[in-house]
Input
Amino acid sequence: MSRPKQNTADLAAALDRDAAKTRLAELAKTLAQANAAYHRDDDPDLTDAEFDSLKRENAALEAAFPDLKRGDSPSDHIGTTPAEGFSKLAHSQRMLSLANAFDVGDVTDFVAGIRRYLNLPPDGALAFTAEPKIDGLSLSLRYEDGQLISAATRGDGQVGENVTTNARTIKDIPQTLHQAPAVLEVRGEVYMSHADFAALNTRQQAAGAKPFANPRNAAAGSLRQLDAEITRARPLRFFAYAWGEVSEPLADTQTGALARLKSLGFQINNRTRTCPTVADMLAHYTRIEADRAALGYDIDGVVYKVDDLAYQRRLGMRSTTPRWAIAHKFPAELAWTTLEAIDIQVGRTGALSPVARLKPVTVGGVVVANATLHNEDYIAGRDANGAPIRPGENGRGKDIRIGDHVQVYRAGDVIPKIADVDLSKRPQTAQPFNFPTLCPECQSQAIREEGDAIRRCTGGLICPAQAVEKLKHFVSRAAFDIEGLGARQVEAFYLDGWVKEPADIFTLQERYGAGLQHLKNREGWGDKSAENLFAAISEKRKIPLHRLIFALGIRHVGEVAAADLARHFSTWEALADTVDAAAPAAQAHRRAEDAIVTERKDAADQTRRASLQPARDAAWADTPAPAKAAWDELTGIDGIGATVAVSLITTFQQARERESINRLIAHLEIETPKARAAESPVAGLIVVFTGSLEKMTRAEAKARAESLGAKVSGSVSAKTDIVVAGPGAGSKQKKARDLGIELLNEDQWLERIGDG
Ligand code: IVH
Output
């Protein structure tokens, strides 16, 4: 989070009244400008981290000099204006994002992975399309009976903003289609050409308005105008490259589907090619990269998509990206500048992350003032194993010091990094950076566990940085997603002392019921906005189990693990009971790991290595059977390993954390996951695949079973419903027999799920 110098006590000591007054005035102005740039102009002039840090500095100063708090104090400004203007529109099919490839190795891995998934031989035909990745913003257009009826931005992939009126002003978007499927959702990118961007900025400047930083921002700002006539005056364009819901297939191949979209009147990028081999894909990438500057619009890579749509269907998607496509990004852009400071931010799980504050420099058209420095080893010039990175003359890794001339590296929209240091320009006074061992936010010990590259604050919820980051995570889109309560608002509530932990969100209304006035007095707020906020909070009291698990912000429990856990346990109580029951096993697991690490240090030969099992057994010897069973259940869930299990157990065993979770649960009505296909014959059943499968790969079998509502587990227990055994199945098959569990071969399984 913030810099150590923003600590209240330090500030009070460091600034006298006059200096504090001047600084508060500066902060009020800067933060008001930043709010307007962010909300009104769609053109942020500060990063979120900078904004947050200034806001905290302001709050700390106000705490130190309460009588200097200004009438227009930024603390009284909630941040976003409540969502207004654009209504929300749910996508009938999720709008996906793309996984990235950064080099040839990533591309060949992607293709090899697809072959493995589909079980295709290395020389079996597998064609791809290759097309430019347009640097704009994606839009989904819905046509019914040939009429454009709605247009929505991507939003969080599930719900976007309804920009139908604005989309109708874009010339590349047909209003009417002839001989189109009855329902057709066309997806593509809204962008602005270089020439139109330059002309728009000239007009902006002539009118005394701020120019846009790049064509992408200009396109986004223009599409999201509340007045559609302004959008009409902005020269936006649209390339179609994908589709959502369709009432009948467009074609059998991606190439055919694009041709069909073209015949319906859409613009298809003329650099799209069908590539039969990986060599063709890479050759096309090289051609597009060479022509990049001459295209007349911004692109940031090449997108490859499996051409055969039947394969695309089989490959399906991961949580947010399809397995059948990848974006091959252009190489990073580089620039040199001075490292002015290193700040330490504290994250949700207590991780101390060093951030480079740079003399601003333009890297590939974007001004960069901050970059990540990853962790203390990275600053010191070594990797997690102690091996040198950025080797210098003596073979040791070059360390990074404040005052150094550093190389900034930016690839697409990824956070910029510091890649290199120019030692010849190092100031004589530059000192090696001392990474803090105390948390800069709460002064608790910050420790590094063996094998972890990250140093973490041990303060837990007493650490304000962790508490705020946890709250931000709690309200984020994939978690509780409370309308009108974003990261900035929840932080403002925290600073005011109104919301210290998630449970407090749900008591806001009753605590401040009488004092709705507090909210009302805030700039941009009135009774209506407060009521809207409370209504939005109330709506989220009913929450799906997987969202709740994700929202808790437990280390290693991301969206996918949360969904795996929710599917397996169905209820919060079942999850909590099993995690609690497994607690003694976590200790046994740790003892076993320690014993193994110790043994492994001298286990030079195979014989000694074979002797690890007794050490493991000894560590587990005293673990009660119910704890072992609960541990096996947890770690037997597909996708959940010992790391997640230990993290869940550790969190649940920490009294403060647990009490905080319990206080939250008391306000909620937790929804049990619905079997995704209730009518499917395997919905809700626990299935184990073992042995080799011949008609599909293990990954495909798992994805298919899960899409039919089954739970796939890695181990057989009394709870298992079906074991699908292929040739070579061993102990799991035997255990299934012993336990009397239904055993199927691959063909019988396919027949059961209707694929036979
Ligand atoms: S395909 C299911 N093709 O890149 C695949 N996306 O980084 C959906 N994009 O959200 C996307 N050019 O906004 C596809 N030729 C192209 C694209 C493209 C730009 C954008 C799109 C997507 C983002 C992912």
